[in-house]
Amino acid sequence: MQSLPAIPNIFKLKPGTGAPRKSQDNLMIFLFLLPAIVLFLLFVVYPILQSIYYSLFNWNGFGPAVDFVGLDNFRNILKDRVFLIALRNGFLIIALSLSVQLPLSLILAVLVGRDLPGRVFFRTVFFLPYVLSEVIAALMWLFILNPDPDRGFINAIIIFLGGRAQPWLGSTTLVLPAIFAALTWKYFGYHMLLFMAGLQNIPAEIEEAGRVDGVNTLQNFFYITLPLLSSTIRTSAYISVLGSLQQFILVWIMSKGGPVNASEMMATYMYRFGFVRFQLGYGSAVAIYMFLLCLTFSVIYMHLTRKPDHLSGL
Amino acid sequence: MQRKLFRVLALIVMVATVLAGCGPKATEEVSSGPVTVTWWHISTAEEHKGAWQKLADEYMAAHPNVTIEITVLENEAFKTKLTTVMQSGNPPDIFQSWGGGVMNEYAQAGLLKDITADLDADGGAWRNTFAPGALGVYAYKGQNYGVPWDMGMIGFWYNKDLFAQAGITTPPTTWNELLEDVKALKAAGITPIALGEGDKWPGMHMWAYLVTRLGGKANFEGALLRTGSFTDQPFVQAGYKLQELMALEPFQDGFLGATYGDEATAVGNSKAAMELMGQWAPAVQKDNSEDKQGLGDKLGWFPFPMVEGGKGDPNDAVGGGNGFAIGKNASPEAIDFVKYLTTPEAQQALVKINVAIPVVKGGEVGMTDPLMITLQQSLARAQYFQLYYDQALPPAMGSVINDSVQGIFAGTLTPEQAAKAIEDSAAQELK
Predict the structure, then answer these.
(1) pLDDT of residue B29
(2) Cβ <8 Å between A258 and B6
């Protein structure tokens, strides 16, 4: 990596100035931060507080909330079978992402990161799905998965190979794998890019030293590349887990969480109550659960993975 | 010097941030000046969209100070987007509405404009042009918040050629006959019924019709007014009747995940023999078919068959129509434009392209399509007209009904469990 020219610290340009200057500096820092703080409070903190407030009401979203129900919404959510399905589906997607999507991205990153002929071409092609908007990707997969073999690409292939057409999104058992395939297709390129960046940070000397010591390709990958990539893997897994917990657009467009809740996610569940059933108080309570879940995960994950980074020594 | 510059810069940024938050509020527009009318409709089919556009263009030509901004949305997208703007308290001036429970909810929240006075002006000149039953769907507690432009009923649209191929000579009139015909179609290798159950409401209508045929008017009204219950016999029985039909596997593959668009495509391309749908079905089939022609003369229509042993009158109809609700911020020009949209001439323009059953007197002139005439006559025979369940009832209940009936179709809910879920929701929503 190229190193940037050193930036002079603007607040230390005149050394030796007294304490009054210091407080002025703080004021200045505060003033510069103010716009960001205002925006953060207005668009992040305020809506969260508002959700907490509304989650205590039975409220249809029109006019002021007046029907105070305390923690009823929170209790009812935990009693709802459909929410538990959504929770289970969320964890299932996480497990699949970590065990299928990330290893796949890593393998591809190693492949296209090396001196493979045409690697720029492959790199571009693999990254392409990530550039597409989620809505377009979802609609595309709707066409591909159309159960009618005359219209759906995948069923056409299955028929061609002599198999039986599958209902895909119309089946309570196939819908989740089908959506996971679309998710993987959409996001593996992004993780691949992360891994490629990580791979580039590994100094060639280390691998060279390994080779001199007689390490074969597989050993090289497992004992040198993988450990040195651990911080990238950690980041990638973190993004993947949070993304899975909050997955909405692809699922909503492809299946609306159906058939009969078979592909329900927490976000689609929240949306259904907030915007289809007009129960915004209940929907807000779902949002709070999601928030708490993501927050808890983040805190625990950050704590558990606070290992020193081999390369930067942090 | 440098430090001073920073301070000035910082102050400017800060002041700009504060000012951006409290810009001057837009002032009320004076109606003599230029007026913009926002209009959301869901008529995505080419001909229909064009007909609306033409009416708007004509009106703008006659009223140069009025600009009509049209937003065309697909049905599901419309519902989503409307809910969002409604919750922000900013409805469009004119928008698609089916009347009933959802509209009532908006009216109750003060998001709609009361146009009773406009309808009654000049001795009720505008009001008297409408069929009263259709207009009544857009009234809440005696006040009008919208007007209809179409009112029809749901029935079976079928492909005459495919029926003939299966050796069926006359359309079924009873449930058992329908089941026999489904078997005949299956035996001939034809998909009997197309269903977009991923969207939920198409299948819900089948269940609702069964309830109507089994229980009649008294049954539904009892449940609605809470003297009865949604777990009463006809509501449960309807689920069992559905299961009878489902046992024959009458639907296309993957119907549980299919959309209404898929359903219309299947029928329009002669891939399935029939669908249970409202008066707009031929237009959508046409638009979704590969040759953009639809079935043409091959298309037939028959009312939902009577159910053996049911208490409902076989002439009773489940249906509804389309209309326009008026948002709370609508200008007088917007209301005047809606008047223009519901003139007999405007109605005839829709009738000509077969996208509406007219609700304005004189609108039926030029109605030539034999199917539409049959449908309109069927509608006229109905003693009891049941508005679509998902529109007649509060939105939360409508959604629970849709979800529960999908559960029956998927086999994850028993008829009893579905009825119980609906009753639980009713207990909360119908106080």
Answers:
(1) 39
(2) no
